[in-house]
Amino acid sequence: MSRKLEADTIRERLDQAELLAIPDAKYRARRTPRQKLKEHILKEVGKSRRLMPLRQFVRTFSNEGLLDVVPCWLVSPETMAVLFPRQPLFDLVVFDEASQCTVQSGFPVTLRAKRVVVAGDDKQMPPTSFFQLGESDNDDDLSEAGIEARDAFAAESLLVLARSRCPHMGLKWHYRCKSEELIAYSNHSMYDGDLLTIPSTAGLLAPSALKWVDVPDGKYDSGLNRPEAERVVTLLHDLLSRDPRPTVGVVTFNLKQRQTILDAIDARATSDSVFGELWSSAREVDALDERPFVKNLESVQGDERDIIVFSLGHAPVIRKRKGGGEELYVPARFGPLGQRGGERRLNVAISRAKRGCYVVSSFEPRLLHVGNSTHSGPRLFKGYLDFAHAKSGGRHDHAVRILDEVRGIPRDRTTATRRRVIDGHLPLAAQIGYDLEKRGVYSEQGIGSSKFEIPLAVAKPGASDGQFALAILTDEGGQGVSAFDQYVHQPLVLKLRGWDVMHIDAAAWSRRRGELLDQIEQRLRP
Questions:
Q1: Residue 415: is its pLDDT beyond 50?
Q2: What pLDDT digit, counting tens, does each position of 359-381 carry?
Q3: How far is CA 120 from the centre of its chain?
Q4: Would you say 211 and 357 are in contact if contact means Cβ atoms under 8 Å apart?
Q5: Domain boundaries of the chain, sorted by first residue
């Protein structure tokens, strides 16, 4: 309701813009300069022929009230620099996806703004081309200011330049993925586990959001894998047949496999009318960001879908050992993943899914050897495949060890040792869980794969899949969490994921233990 009121207020302010408030000239009366201006603008807007070029229109009227009537513009940096004069016309300019904006594209835009916000993720892909001055590499030819300007324009992106020169604030929470499994590997491998993710109510017995799809007859032939492409199309048929239908995207690791999948889709749509109708219906939805796509690894940044399907393309081959005999292995041909910065391409790809991810593969992760790789991309790629394979197979402890290893945490550091009892003190969540167990109520401590964990998650009575219903947030002091986060933000994000939330502090527990346990059981009832 408050959002709607705010939007109505903004629209009402726009209706009161000075340009719109200019009265029309009376019949045969001399028009004022402002009236002439208004009539000129309306005449140009109403034309169907001989239109004034947009650049000329904007530059003519931008200082004459046009920006009061149309205050918000969504344009590329290049278009912004072409349309608007080099003046601070805008109160605020926001650069989105600034990791892909070159300095030479973004800097002219900053001259059109009074304030600038540069938003982006330096763990995602940089611009595909960099600005090169190339005139002279000799610092003796440049003044101190010239050297500083050269270094600034040589920055990888506008985001990199801004990080060292502007106040910085990072986002703490990740909201896209409805299941933590989808972002856990990226969080631990790229962000050192600093992203706060929201635990799902699904228990450990629930099907994983990461699915491994084997293609035993897959064959890698000059960059493409036709059997795997056919399996992807079959999977697309299954996904698009669901009700409600999820949005779907397919990501490949090279352009040849992308084209092979597109050809397989066309062939199936021609031979199978049911699939053809499903594919056509999905492609014809009005919202562009809900249509299915098939893209290669380097083209998927900025996209997101409910379900992402990976087609790895590679397949095992037989090679002879030095000592005799044969073995299966997967050649380490990683393309862009094996280059410098390949880990960022991987990070983009594995963080696109909102509800589920399918890895369609012709090989098991153990067959992939990355020991000779120079850069970290191949190593992290193999780690992700190991993680997805483990989660899909229900081997959750192995998946946790993979996350620990990618962050450099020793293998013998178990979940139990992370929550050691200090000086014989039993944490409040453990006390509550122990008393609930005596009443026949199942609960789990420390639910979550990031630094934000639910102290105690209580399962639905009789839930065969171990699904949780109630999140108990405890307060024992010294947690370093603000009151707003603890009592407003954390409960809100948990409720968005379907949790019922209850706060219990140590003082209340010591005085009203039985009453609180009764309240917990009451809230679990249907």
A1: no
A2: 999 999 998 888 777 788 889 99
A3: 11
A4: yes
A5: 73-170, 209-393, 419-524
Q: Where are the extended beta strands (E) located within 189-245?
A: 210-214
User: pTM for this one?
Assistant: 0.83
Which residue, among 44, 68, 43, has the nearest Cα to 54 in the 3D structure? Answer: 44
Tokens 């380097």 belong to residue? 298
Mean local confidence (pLDDT), 208-216: 95
Note if the bond before 244 is cis, omega within 30 degrees: yes
> CB-side exposure of 7: number of CA atoms within 13 Å?
4
pLDDT computed for residue 164 by the predictor: 80
CA distance 36 to 24: 9
User: What average pLDDT does range 199-214 have in this prediction?
Assistant: 90
Cα dist from 121 to 97, 111, 181, 205, 310, whole Å: 7, 23, 20, 34, 23
Classify residue 298 as exposed, middle or buried by CB count within 10 Å of its CB (0-12, 13-18, 19+).
middle
Q: What is the pLDDT of residue 417?
A: 43
- Architecture per CATH, domain 419-524, reads as 3-Layer(aba) Sandwich (3.40)
Q: Determine the distance from the C-alpha atom of residue 54 to the mean position of all C-alpha atoms in its chain, rounded to a whole number.
A: 35
Distance CA 261, CA 155 (A): 37
Q: What is the mean pLDDT of residues 461-474?
A: 84
Q: Residue 461 and residue 525: Cα distance in Å, rounded?
A: 8
Note the CATH number of domain 209-393.
3.40.50.300
Q: Give the C-alpha distances (Å, rounded to integers) separating 57 from 44, 45, 78, 154, 232.
A: 8, 9, 17, 34, 49
Give the pLDDT score at 412.
Answer: 52
Does 519 score more than 50 pLDDT? yes
Q: What are phi and psi of 349, to 5 degrees?
A: -65, -45
For the beta carbon of residue 193, count every other beta carbon within 10 angstroms: 19
How far apart are the C-alpha atoms of 18 and 369, rounded to whole Å? Answer: 68
Q: Do the domains at 209-393 and 419-524 have one common CATH topology? A: no
